[in-house]
Amino acid sequence: MQSRQSIEKTAKTVEEAVELALTELGATRQQVDVAVLEEPTKGLFGILGGRLARVKVTLCISPEEKTITFLTELAERMGTTSVQCSEGEAEDENFKLELQGTNAGRLIGKRGQTIEALQVLAAVVYSRAGGSRRVLLDVNNYRAKRQESLVELALKLAAKVKGSGRRVIMEPMGAYERRVIHMALQNDKEIVTYSEGDEPFRKVVIALRREE
Length: 212
Prior knowledge:
By secondary structure, the protein is an alpha+beta fold. The chain has helices at residues 14-25, 63-77, 113-128, 142-164, 175-185; strands at residues 3-11, 32-38, 53-61, 81-87, 95-102, 135-139, 168-169, 191-196, 203-208.
């Protein structure tokens, strides 16, 4: 589904009317649908009683484009410069957004709290524009780097649990990071992981499977 903005313009020719509409919309010909409502006609002797061309030009903005524009403008308002936001490659049907920029650390926040909040906002904008996929946001490749360190930490803590026989409670994490921990240890037959507590202080617990 797409959000659509339409305007009508009149001019001596259809092409002139379309150009007027494109200028007002700030769009290219490839970004719009054009409906000719009235063809121009010549009046008596080519002067009197003529009719102008009238067109309806509809700007088609996809949910993806709208979300990218929203995030770009928001990042700039938050003090990030040289902002570039684009759709990245996803392994599944998710809508993955990649945001790059200078001073982008403020878009990530402590323990990724800001990036999680931005992802929620982006998901709301995307959904309201008609999008149906799950939104995933990454900033300056933070997710990939963080995922690597989380997997390493999960394996280290799992080894500690096996050695001591005592469960380990990790620091509070967002839903995405908790999922990384669960996925990293899901095939370990000696270990079980689960989450406890309420947001935003929900934590992952790593324990021996016999405690389950």
